[in-house]
Design a protein that fits this description.
mainly alpha; Helix Hairpins; two-stranded antiparallel ribbon; 8% strand; rod-shaped
Length: 210
């Protein structure tokens, strides 16, 4: 315990007040983080479920196309139409938190002409299959963007929550205990001083009577 003086008592009370204010500010930030976390989390979960369904549909469509076009022909089309999809990574922020964002350099979805094969000789089913898989890739890139924000918000939310817990469960109780001990000590000292002065006055008064 620090030295039991009135000055230190005032300093401890000021510190406790500052800690309470800091806790209040952190709780406000935590609420904002939770709101944004849920705002991003709900559509992210929905998007994942939609992409999972699209992937299942894509696999079924691909199997059908292989049955119609032949596996060798589908494999040759994959070689002809393959490409490197460019993305740019930029640093941005949300609620003051920095994270890396993905941006598409070019559109994932392509027209029939842009795919680079003789589309009049293929079935519409194959075109639908390719379009579906391009949609899946586009959705996955969009999810990657949201997951970057989602993860950063989650990390900050955890950090703020831990800090609030430390302030509420350790710092504030410790300050409260120190303030209580010093207050009790000063009160006892004041009582002792009062009784000592009272006894001194009584003796002084008795001495003058003699």
């Amino acid at each position: 315990m620090i030295q039991a003086t009135r000055t230190n008592l005032l300093l401890l009370k000021e510190r406790r007040h500052a800690v309470i204010n800091c806790t209040t500010i952190l709780k406000g930030r935590r609420q904002a983080l939770i709101k944004k976390f849920l705002e991003i989390g709900r559509p992210l979960i929905t998007s994942r479920e939609e992409t999972r369904q699209h992937y299942g549909q894509g696999i079924d469509a691909l199997q059908t196309s292989i049955g119609l076009e032949g596996q060798d022909y589908i494999a040759s089309l994959a070689l002809i139409s393959q490409r490197h999809l460019g993305v740019t990574v930029t640093q941005t922020n949300i609620l003051g938190l920095h994270y890396y964002d993905l941006q598409e350099v070019e559109s994932v979805r392509r027209t029939l002409v842009e795919r680079g094969y003789d589309y009049p000789s293929t079935t519409p089913r194959l075109d639908e299959t390719l379009h579906l898989f391009e949609t899946i890739i586009e959705e996955m890139l969009a999810m990657a963007r949201y997951e970057g924000m989602f993860r950063r918000l989650g990390e900050e939310l955890l950090r703020v929550t831990r800090r609030i817990r430390v302030l509420e469960e350790r710092v504030q109780p410790a300050l409260k205990s120190e303030i209580k001990d010093i207050t009790h000590y000063l009160a006892e000292r004041e009582r002792e001083t009062y009784y000592r002065m009272k006894l001194f006055k009584k003796r002084a008064t008795g001495g003058r009577r003699h």
